């Protein structure tokens, strides 16, 4: 037994019970966030049907279907047929749209259908609820999770809603197009569809993985009423306002972004586990977690039924939207908690709560100082040491993982974090051991209570700052601190000896809330950010350890450190075992391109693989070499510095895009060129680059793409109209000495007919490109 416990250990059985309780708390908190598969509802006609949704999902994900592809047209036609089979009259909104940033534009085909509410005729000012998901996919994906699963949930919602009495509000269903290339479908609806003026609220569903809970990660501003409604409609939803604060700082966009900027109130949902499926060939229908799919479908119906009965005129909060009722633009602090649901309250309470907890911290310190002499300077020094520990542990853990990359470089391309959760567990156990031993060592000079209140001091400082600057994140520091401080006060009032087992149990009771709250967040942060940002969840964990300092030190007095270290090493070993066959199960596809420049009679096979696999790519012989190809991609394109294996290729017979300068004149002391571009063979997308000169203004089909001077100007047109597009650019009046060029590249994702004899293994992702290069006259 001395191998497990020090000779002076007095509470072995209490320790075992306490550790078991700790493990059960963590396990329970993690279990609560995972969706559970439920039995089919008794009234299937008015509820979500998982079996029917799975069949529909299989049908729309048989083929890869990026915008402009044949597979994309098949998905569109299938959705239209399903809607008509429900007795609906869907609209096909065909429109040319461009992204806000100007990097993409194209012909989109949104599918729109409207269910009339019972009050729509009596009250013309009644606002409609908009439900949205996108039906396009990225080129090399089947688009099951992103976003086919949401599309079929919408079909199921329509079927269920049709089978019941009408809701109070109209519900508009938007199956948007072109989301993956620049939110084009959402932009087209927002800019030109007549129903846009009726929209009072938006529910958007998109995904970054194929499993895990359906999380509400982004509400619109002024979300208090939205969060109240969410808590009523879906009490079990996984969400918190920290996600909102973090997401606001990120550059990520979804279709939701377009409507949020228009001032439309709304909620944005996604599942994020198993990121190996995201934008890859592994985004297949058979890999979708059935429990997650069922949860999404049921949640969607619950939300539509709830908000379909609300007066949505009170929700729009910005952009000067004309509303009939007063606007309440206050945000909420909110977070999910096991068995309780979504806890929420106004952000205006965040700072008063922080000040109240500051007072409680002072009270707890005073009560503790009555039982023993606590030194203020030692407490401040402990706070400083805690800050150093947070930074050091976060930095060292990230560097340790970077070292793993050096030994196992394949991990750099491991996109699925879920298989590595044992790694996370092992790292966190070793982190807890390192932090605990450091704190135990510091007890030679400072009392454990001074260490504890040093951590409290840091927590209070963070809480006050966050409550004032980022109130949505304040819950993370307020409520754990409350219960821990209450346990400190109880220990001081009852004068419980810090060597007793009762002392540890009281500390665990105070820490229970923190453990239940932090455990899922640490896991979700690791899933969302990946091991490339391992330091973030480790820092979050170290913050929690600071609050649990007395409990951690008590445990390390009762158990040998080597047992804890062994537990961490076992977890890491399990992580290595779990990821051992990852690349066999999820091999990274081989990239192959056919590139032709007919003007120069150049046709090449290209692959960017580091190590050429000639068995897979038999077209590359022994004479193949690696080199950069700026003459194909343009010196100003990022790919001009990539190294490719290249080999001569036969003429595939793909027509190059046509480029015709229609006019070239001076306007407002600038040179304006009007250029007509056509994709003869209807490419999936057409990239347009202006090289060697600065573009002062640009528009496509009279839609403005940029208004300020820009070097290396580039845009892409997707699903180009058969008649082509008109590009209007303005350049400096004098281009003497400038070697300006217009480079237009058509991209296809199907093997050309003339190359059908080429055997491409299923492990190869293929693209074909043809390039036209036109000089800009001086």
UniProtKB/TrEMBL annotation:
One of its GO terms (cellular component) is vacuolar membrane. Pfam families: Peptidase_M28. It is a multi-pass membrane protein. Gene3D superfamilies: Zn peptidases. Residues 110-303 form the Peptidase M28 domain. The keyword Hydrolase does not apply. GO terms for molecular function: metalloexopeptidase activity. It is found in: Vacuole membrane. The chain crosses the membrane at residues 349-369, 376-401, 421-439, 451-470, 476-493, 505-528, 534-556, 563-582. Keywords: Glycoprotein, Membrane, Transmembrane, Transmembrane helix, Vacuole. The keyword Membrane applies. GO terms for biological process: proteolysis. InterPro entries: M28_fam (IPR045175), Peptidase_M28 (IPR007484). Belongs to the peptidase M28 family. May be involved in vacuolar sorting and osmoregulation. This is Vacuolar membrane protease. It comes from Undibacterium baiyunense.
């Amino acid at each position: 037994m001395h191998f497990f416990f020090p000779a002076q250990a007095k509470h072995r059985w209490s320790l075992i019970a306490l550790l078991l309780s700790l493990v059960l708390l963590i396990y329970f908190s993690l279990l609560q966030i995972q969706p559970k598969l439920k039995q089919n509802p008794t009234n299937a006609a008015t509820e979500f049907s998982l079996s029917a949704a799975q069949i529909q999902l299989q049908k729309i994900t048989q083929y890869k279907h990026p915008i402009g592809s044949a597979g994309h047209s098949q998905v569109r036609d299938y959705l239209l047929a399903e809607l008509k089979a429900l007795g609906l009259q869907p609209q096909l909104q065909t429109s040319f749209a461009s992204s806000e940033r100007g990097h993409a534009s194209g012909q989109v085909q949104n599918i729109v259908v409207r269910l009339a509410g019972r009050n729509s005729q009596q009250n013309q000012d009644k606002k409609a609820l908009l439900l949205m998901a996108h039906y396009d996919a990225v080129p090399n994906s089947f688009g099951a999770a992103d976003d086919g699963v949401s599309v079929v949930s919408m079909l199921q919602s329509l079927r269920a809603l049709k089978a019941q009495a009408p809701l109070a509000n109209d519900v508009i269903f938007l199956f948007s197009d072109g989301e993956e290339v620049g939110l084009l479908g959402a932009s087209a609806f927002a800019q030109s569809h007549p129903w846009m003026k009726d929209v009072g609220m938006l529910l958007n569903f998109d995904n970054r993985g194929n499993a895990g809970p359906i999380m509400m990660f982004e509400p619109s501003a002024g979300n208090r009423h939205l969060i109240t409604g969410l808590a009523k409609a879906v009490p079990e939803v996984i969400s918190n306002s920290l996600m909102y604060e973090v997401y606001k700082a990120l550059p990520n966009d979804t279709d939701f972004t377009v409507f949020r900027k228009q001032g439309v109130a709304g909620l944005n949902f996604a599942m994020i586990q198993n990121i190996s499926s995201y934008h890859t060939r592994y985004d297949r229908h058979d890999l979708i977690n059935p429990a997650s799919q069922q949860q999404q479908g049921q949640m969607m119906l619950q939300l539509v039924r709830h908000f379909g009965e609300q007066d949505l005129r009170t929700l729009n909060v910005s952009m000067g939207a004309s509303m009939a009722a007063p606007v309440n633009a206050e945000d909420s602090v909110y977070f999910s908690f096991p068995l309780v649901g979504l806890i929420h309250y106004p952000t205006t309470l965040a700072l008063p709560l922080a000040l109240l907890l500051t007072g409680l911290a002072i009270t707890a310190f005073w009560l503790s100082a009555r039982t023993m002499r606590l030194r203020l300077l030692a407490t401040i020094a402990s706070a400083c040491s805690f800050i150093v520990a947070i930074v050091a542990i976060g930095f060292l853990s990230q560097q340790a993982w970077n070292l793993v990359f050096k030994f196992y470089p394949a991990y750099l391309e491991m996109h699925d974090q879920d298989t590595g959760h044992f790694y996370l567990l092992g790292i966190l156990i070793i982190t807890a051991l390192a932090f605990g031993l450091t704190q135990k060592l510091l007890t030679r000079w400072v009392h454990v209570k001074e260490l504890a209140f040093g951590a409290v001091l840091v927590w209070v400082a963070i809480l006050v700052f966050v409550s004032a600057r980022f109130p949505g994140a304040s819950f993370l520091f307020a409520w754990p601190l409350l219960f821990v401080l209450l346990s400190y006060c109880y220990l001081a009032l009852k004068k419980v000896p810090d060597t007793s087992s009762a002392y540890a149990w009281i500390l665990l009771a105070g820490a229970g809330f923190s453990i239940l709250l932090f455990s899922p967040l640490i896991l979700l942060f690791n899933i969302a950010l990946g091991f490339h940002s391992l330091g973030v969840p480790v820092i979050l964990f170290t913050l929690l350890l600071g609050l649990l300092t007395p409990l951690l030190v008590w445990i390390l007095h009762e158990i040998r450190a080597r047992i804890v270290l062994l537990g961490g090493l076992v977890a890491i070993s399990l992580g290595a075992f779990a990821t051992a066959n990852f690349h066999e199960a999820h091999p990274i596809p081989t990239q192959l391109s056919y590139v032709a420049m007919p003007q120069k009679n150049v046709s090449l096979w290209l692959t960017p693989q580091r190590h050429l696999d000639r068995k897979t790519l038999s077209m590359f012989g022994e004479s193949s070499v690696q080199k950069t190809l700026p003459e194909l991609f343009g010196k100003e394109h990022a790919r001009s510095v990539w190294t490719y294996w290249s080999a001569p290729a036969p003429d595939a017979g793909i027509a190059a895009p046509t480029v015709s300068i229609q006019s070239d004149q001076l306007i407002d002391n600038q040179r304006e060129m009007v250029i007509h571009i056509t994709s003869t063979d209807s490419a999936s997308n057409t990239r347009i680059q202006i090289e060697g000169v600065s573009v002062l203004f640009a528009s496509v089909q009279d839609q403005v793409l940029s208004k300020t001077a820009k070097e290396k100007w580039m845009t892409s047109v997707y699903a180009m109209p058969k008649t082509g597009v008109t590009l209007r650019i303005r350049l400096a009046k004098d281009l003497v000495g400038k070697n300006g060029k217009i480079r237009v590249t058509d991209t296809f994702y199907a093997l050309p007919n003339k190359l059908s004899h080429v055997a491409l293994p299923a492990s190869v992702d293929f693209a074909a490109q043809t390039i036209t290069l036109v000089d800009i006259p001086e």
